[in-house]
Amino acid sequence: MIKFIKFHTASTMTPPHSLMPFLYAKGSLTTLLEQQARQVIRVQVVRECYQPLDFSHKKEFDLPMHRPTLAWVREVLLFGDDTEAWVRAKSIFPLPSLTGNAKRLRHLKHTPIGYVMFKHNRQLPYKRTIFYDEHQKHWGRNTIYDWQGRAILVQEVFLKDLKIKQ
Fold first, then answer.
1. Angle made by CA atoms 47, 40, 86, in degrees to the nearest 5
2. Less crowded by CB within 10 Å, the N or C end of the chain?
3. Three-class secondary structure assignment of 97-147
4. How far, in Å, CA of 75 to CA of 88, rounded?
5. 4 and 129 in contact (C-beta within 8 Å)?
6. In angstroms, what CA-CA distances link 130 with 19, 48, 136, 139?
7. What is the second-level CATH architecture of the domain 2-158?
8. What are 5-41's pLDDT values in tens digits?
9. What tens digit of pLDDT does each residue of 112-162 get?
């Protein structure tokens, strides 16, 4: 399911045609970015920490609003063939979902999350929202994946106007 919303804007906008394949990719964005870069994506970890989930994230995860819930939050920059980052990504793993195989998601370091999540499945069930942040002037997407029965939120903000290379 894909919903389209806009942050901080009242105008009607549509994403640039060149970003559409990235915004609406059904499989691994990592794979698509590596095809674009024609090399392995470089991951720069900005921050990894425990964080309480706020109201909006609890709502997205369909968690009880009245209970405090901690999450493991990982923020990274993804680099393709440039010195400029292509994507700013934030992954949110509610602690109750970090059990069994999912424990390793806390220890990704410089590994793209797509390598782990899409290792055995090219497509995962998901719910996605496309957004435009007028303040930052960037398009992005929030995706809640169902990975091995666990809900994981991945937010990707496109820092460049990428174009599919032929």
1. 55
2. C
3. HCCHHHHHHHHCCCCCHHHHHCCCCCCCCEEEEEEEECCCCEEEEEEEEEE
4. 7
5. yes
6. 11, 24, 15, 8
7. 3-Layer(aba) Sandwich (3.40)
8. 444 443 468 888 889 999 998 888 998 899 999 999 9
9. 988 877 776 666 767 899 999 888 889 999 999 888 888 889 999 999 777
